[in-house]
Amino acid sequence: MTIDGDIARFDVIVVGAGFSGLYALHHLRELGLRVRVLEKAHTVGGTWLVNRYPGARCDIESIEYSYSFSEEIQQEWVWTETMSAQPEIEAYLNFVADRLDLRRDIDFETTVVAMSYSDEAAEWTVRTEDGATVAAPFVVAATGILSVPLEPSIPGMDRFTGTSLHTGRWPDGVVDLSGKRVGVVGTGSTGVQLIPVVAREAEHLTVFQRSPAYTLPWRVRTFEPGELDELKASYPQIRAAQREHPVGAARLSAFSVLLEMLAKPPLKTASAEERTKAVETDGIMGALNWGDLFFDIEANQMAAELYGQAVARIVDDPATARALTPSHPFACKRPIIDQGYYETFNRDNVTLVDLRADPIESVCPNGIQTAAGLHELDVIIYATGFDAMTGALNSIDVRGRGGASLREFWTEEGPLSYLGLAVAGFPNLFTIQGPGSPSAAANFVAAMEQNVEWIGACVSYLREHGFRTIEALPEAQQEWVDQATALVAATVLVHPSCSSWYNGGNVPGKKRMYMGYTAGIPEYRRRCDEIADAGYAGFKLA
Ligand code: NA7
């Protein structure tokens, strides 16, 4: 760091101390760069710190949803379950921060409110909420893809006299729900994880469901004695397989199950007996395990019907089972896995409100008013998702070349980006797993590690070759966006009836555009390397 007047100067400023910010700090520091991390929370963890709601858990196996860059760390850390719950991931990230002595380069409780690029100085100036300013030629936005909670705008929300909670801003410490009448709004991944746990604790749970989930029943278990040690001994093979796998997780996960479905026979040509048998034998998996659901909306609708039959085999009350049957296409939203979700609706203390038939009118001081009546509540939990991919950077006033606003650009033009790593007009700003990256449909940790290492190599290249700036070219950016869009053009991911955080349809006013890159991490890595090897093709270096 150098001090110039009131401004502290670094080589790189990293915004965020979650999975990506921590690795960015470590990796760039190892390259000899002076790095400062600015983090708004009081400690490390990012989205795994704030999503402390009961039941929060990763849906990728712990030994794959973890840093691969350090053999010491992967050997020393002890995972207790096949898929980790939030407290263990939070503890892991704290362990990593201590093990690598990362905290000395992190400013906690430091919220970045603005950053602007000076063409003349080829430098970013970053302003924080407390009025401090820091500067560096490079900024790495490690701000997360699911880090800005999405507040619904339901009339009367602020008049509720009970406790209002958002899963993405869960308070520290235990929230005691025993003896309480609890309402949960939202049935995405978060709601599906939360609902069974809350049902066991609350006196009564009312689930307010706008779009029923497609969710695969899953068994998460603690490791058997010696099992983790065996896995750790195989880490070279595990990591190698992961590296070659399209979703960055070669072991069983919701993503890998989806990929396997693609290779299954089509539903459209299956006989009525075959369909019935699939549901009778394999339940929910049997309803969805067909190869044509991703590309053929009619096949997808047929699967939804089978899915309803599979749900009806678990849920005792036929009307509730019908209400739990989705009407949007399967696979257009991120896959969900659950532990006992549908069984929860057989409990006496759980009521489902199907908002498709009985919409919310308002939140009242004592509960939620739907068209059919008032549901009295002591606690309302909003599990209403995130302003994904662009939300975190849009919450900062980012000004690029000539004072151009990133927020305005993304709002007006859509979330355009080159490789998900850079945006034309915003030189020397790297976005980890920005829009157009594999992150949304892959193991975020694996995808993120590739990005951090690419950024490290890029900054080293620029310094070694005497370049001060790198900036995505608009035409390369458009080409990348077109390619990413073409990859999903024939799939249900872009069907007009599909509204999700993948395509921005969950945020009122957000320009709809599929924000992922679905050719897989190995192909993405190959493209990124090819671009770097060609002297950063598609970028202007100056
Ligand atoms: P999601 O998947 O975006 O789900 C949010 C849920 O909240 C979904 O069921 C929404 O219904 C519902 N929602 C949102 N606003 C409202 C209002 N106003 N009224 C009723 N219901 C509403 O977010 P999650 O947190 O569950 O999961 C996000 C990712 O985190 C997940 O994919 C994993 O990657 C981890 P809708 O579908 O919009 O009709």
Q: Any overview of this molecule?
A:
- GO terms for molecular function: oxidoreductase activity, acting on paired donors, with incorporation or reduction of molecular oxygen, NAD(P)H as one donor, and incorporation of one atom of oxygen.
- This is Putative (Cyclohexanone) monooxygenase.
- Keywords: FAD, Flavoprotein, Monooxygenase, NADP, Oxidoreductase.
- Pfam families: Pyr_redox_2.
- Its cofactor is FAD.
- The structure is a single chain.
- With 542 residues, the protein is of the alpha/beta class.
- It has a domain of 245 residues: FAD/NAD(P)-binding domain.
- Helix content is 33%, strand content 17%.
- It has a 6-stranded mixed beta sheet with strand order 1-2-8-7-6-20, with no helix packed on it. Strands 5-4-3-9-21 form a 5-stranded parallel beta sheet, covered by helices on one side.
- Helix 1 packs parallel to helix 15, helix 9 crosses helix 10 and helix 15 runs parallel beside helix 17.
- Bound molecules: ligand NA7.
- The site of ligand NA7 has 23 residues, from helix 5.
**CATH fold name of the domain at 2-44 and 102-148 and 387-541, please?**
FAD/NAD(P)-binding domain
User: Beta fraction of the residues?
Assistant: 15-25%
Bound molecule types: ligand NA7
Q: Based on Cα principal axes, name the global outline.
A: globular
Count of helices? 17
Low-pLDDT stretches are none
> Helical content, roughly?
25-40%
- Extended strand count: 23
Structural class: alpha/beta
CATH superfamily of the domain at 2-44 and 102-148 and 387-541: FAD/NAD(P)-binding domain
Distance between the termini: 24 Å
CATH class of the domain at 2-44 and 102-148 and 387-541: Alpha Beta
Strand ordering within the main sheet: 1-2-8-7-6-20
CATH architect. name of the domain at 2-44 and 102-148 and 387-541: 3-Layer(bba) Sandwich
